[in-house]
Amino acid sequence: VRSFSRLAMLMLLAMTFSGCQQFAAISETMFMMSTTQELELGQEVIQQLNAEMQYVNDPVVVSYIQDLGRKLWAYSPQGPVEPRFHVIRNDELNSFAVPGGDIFVHTGLIDAAEDEAELAGVIAHELGHVIRRHGAQHVSHQMGLEFVQQLVLGEDSGQVAQLVTQLLAAGVMTNYSREDEQEADDIAVRTLYAAGYDPMAMHSFFQKLVQQYGEQTGVVSTLFASHPPTTARMEYVQQLVRQLPNKTYQRPTQRLREIQERI
Ligand code: ZN
């Protein structure tokens, strides 16, 4: 007790004497951008990614992914940033979310899913990152208030573009921590369960990919490059599922097969 009160007094003294500087330092590390700032940042990011991405425009494929995504969103804990879903023509097994809620799903990923529950698991995981605003959080915490203001208020669009290029190159937006991954997996398992999909589909999809391609190499290393399917993640998912009450699950395949035929 004594050491605590001594520490508290020292902190109080430090705050009194160093004044604003101390507070500025604290608020700088705790800074979190607003949802409006997050949306603006996201728009900048998408503008840059657009140069490298080929969108799938087949309305049947796009609405399948959008309907699946919106259904999962409806069963998820949700958040202040609403998701939007896009399909990208790319053979790499990947999907990713950018700040502002846009989720991109590669055709390679859709193709690799055995059933709709497996695909839903990946999309629900991305929803977890959107709901918890992980990308925006990383940019906020690592770059600070001044940087974000510069980013969204910058009148020189060339300068803003350069800042976003740097952020993308440094992987600040997708450099998720283990805690982030667990949080996203946690949301994904609960969302699948609530929507009636078998949450073990996440586990089976990871397992199949690792068995097929080997851990951390080749295709699997590009699979969710920022969130690789590690053994620890698989065990975590299994543990979460075991805690859920029994339920009859769906693992539908028919609609997915039709979509896979089209891509
Ligand atoms: Zn992730």
What would you say this structure looks like, in words?
- By secondary structure, this protein is mainly alpha-helical.
- 67% of the residues lie in helices and 5% in strands.
- It has helices at 2-18, 20-30, 35-50, 59-75, 107-112, 116-131, 134-153, 157-170, 178-195, 200-213, 218-222, 231-242, 254-262, and strands spanning 84-88, 95-97, 102-106.
- A three-stranded mixed beta sheet has the order 1-3-2.
- Helix 10 packs antiparallel against helix 12.
- The protein is globular.
- The termini are far apart.
- The structure holds zinc ion.
- Zinc ion is lined by residues 125, 129, 176, 181, 184, 224, 227.
State the main characteristics:
3-stranded mixed beta sheet; disordered N terminus; mainly alpha; 263 residues; globular; binds zinc ion
> What is the strand tally?
3
Radius of gyration: 21 Å
Q: Which structural category fits the helices and strands?
A: mainly alpha
Relative strand content: under 5%
Intertermini distance = 66 Å
The helix count comes to: 13
Shape designation: globular
H-E order = HHHHEEEHHHHHHHHH
Strands in their spatial order, largest beta sheet: 1-3-2
Which oligomeric state applies? single chain
Ligands bound to this protein structure:
zinc ion
Helix-residue proportion: 55-70%
How would a crystallographer describe the biggest sheet?
Answer: 3 strands, mixed
Mean pLDDT: 84
Low-confidence stretches: 1-28
